[in-house]
Design goal:
This protein is α/β, with parallel strands linked by helices. The protein has an eight-stranded mixed beta sheet with strand order 8-11-12-7-13-14-15-16. α1 packs across α9, α6 packs across α8 and α8 crosses α10. The radius of gyration is 23 Å and the shape is globular. The chain binds alpha-L-sorbopyranose.
């Protein structure tokens, strides 16, 4: 006889891409994990009554509302899941925490360090009252990523020397793709930097257990004006005839020094976050190089981890592909027999599983708002570095050259 489950009523604020992914997770996690808490998909909140009613019907929410504050303050609600653009994260999270609700908030935590600081202070107070909060860096809950962290923690790659992370998308490579909210600094806070660069930063810090200590970066916007959004929203939508300015970065390129707890910065990291990598749809790649080996992850092969063990005999050296589907691998015991793979959406079910377990066990959830604040500070430092103007140095022009044409290095006369 399993212990009686506690039912907690969930309110989801927002029903775009993340609202859909989180809805799938609230519905699926309790069916595959034996949880002490049963989440009830109580209320879905959106601005347009017809659209939110259609979304609630599609995703399986019992009620709908268009007033997030009324829902957040309702005694019927126990958990608030924030899946809205970043400009509303702080207001909603602060109201929910003040009302004693557990809060899951999508990444990045906020659009500014100041907002992230206010949210973190409120979350710390709430934690003392047994109210839990988490920021949704979902990729750390992909089993292959969690397993990479275990291998690094177990010393299997030795001392971390370098990390490189790419988050490559191409949905803006078309200069006529319309101005969605992600291209408006007022709503999104930043462009590729905060939307996908934040994921890359969390992945490197999570796998290495080291933190970004210093950064140097550039931000660039290739297309500075686009058609206003006609129909649709989010990542897609039709273009109208009017045009408007793009106020965020298209590409963020940055380097970092990493520091292990209590140690001087020693490892180096390079990061690329772009929406202009034509042909790359949602390519998330992380590789960590150590003194005894390397681990490499690619979301397009998300059930696999490439592992290089430099301690093997020379004749046996080489990256080997680990299929991360064994029940002993993180999260996998709940799903299918070995060799059967999972998808992007499963990381969100793992996120719900971990959040509800934290609540049930009466301990803080991770990543905490303070971890989200630390990443917000890294984003802010990159913007400061980029704004200060990176030290670009042009190569000396060839002697006698008037155009700065490259010097031939092959020795063959042109
Ligand atoms: C858009 O870049 C986006 O939806 C991100 O906002 C999500 O965090 C990522 O998981 C998928 O792409």
């Amino acid at each position: 006889m399993t212990a009686p489950r506690t039912t907690l009523n969930v309110a989801m604020i927002g029903h775009g891409f993340m609202g859909a992914a989180h809805s799938q997770a609230w519905r699926t996690a309790p069916r595959f994990y034996d949880l002490a808490i049963e989440p009830r998909m109580h209320t879905l909140v959106g601005r347009d009554p017809e659209r939110v009613a259609a979304a609630a019907d599609k995703f399986g929410w019992d009620n709908t509302d268009t007033d997030w504050r009324r829902v957040v303050e309702s005694d019927d609600i126990d958990i608030v899941d924030i899946g809205t653009p970043g400009d509303t994260h702080a207001e909603i999270a602060l109201a929910a925490l003040a009302a004693g609700k557990h809060v899951m908030c999508e990444k990045p935590l906020a659009n500014s360090v100041a907002d992230a600081e206010r949210m973190t202070a409120a979350a710390a107070d709430a934690d003392a009252r047994g109210v839990r909060s988490m920021v949704g860096f979902s990729y750390r809950r992909v089993p292959a990523v969690a397993f990479a962290r275990q291998l690094v923690a177990d010393g299997r790659i030795g001392e971390v020397r370098q990390a490189r992370a790419q988050y490559l998308q191409d949905w803006l490579a078309d200069a006529e793709a319309p101005l969605t909210w992600r291209l408006n600094k007022e709503l999104a806070g930043s462009g590729s930097l905060g939307d996908i660069g934040a994921h890359a930063i969390d992945l490197v810090q999570y796998i290495t257990a080291q933190s970004v200590a210093e950064v140097s970066g550039i931000l660039h916007t290739f297309v500075t004006e686009r058609p206003l959004l006609g129909e649709g929203s989010g990542l897609s939508g039709t273009a109208s005839t009017e045009r408007g300015p793009v106020t965020v970065d298209d590409v963020a390129l940055f380097t970092a020094r990493l520091e292990a707890p209590g140690a001087a910065p020693a490892a180096l990291a390079t990061f690329e976050a772009t929406r202009f990598a034509t042909g790359r749809k949602n390519a998330v790649r992380v590789e960590i190089n150590g003194s005894l080996g390397s681990v490499a992850f690619d979301l397009e092969r998300m059930n696999e981890l490439d592992f290089y063990d430099a301690t093997l005999p020379a004749t046996e050296l080489g990256f080997r592909r680990i299929l991360v589907t064994e029940p002993e691998h993180p999260y996998m015991a709940a799903w299918w027999p070995t060799g059967h793979t999972i998808g992007y959406e499963h990381a969100f079910s793992h996120q719900v599983r971990d959040f509800l377990t934290s609540i049930a066990e009466g301990r803080p959830a991770e990543p905490s708002f303070s971890e989200g604040l630390q990443i917000q500070r890294v984003l802010d430092a990159i913007e400061t570095s980029a704004g200060a103007g990176s030290a670009w140095t042009a190569p000396e022009p060839a002697p006698g050259s008037t155009t700065g044409a490259p010097v031939t290095t092959t020795g063959v006369t042109e």
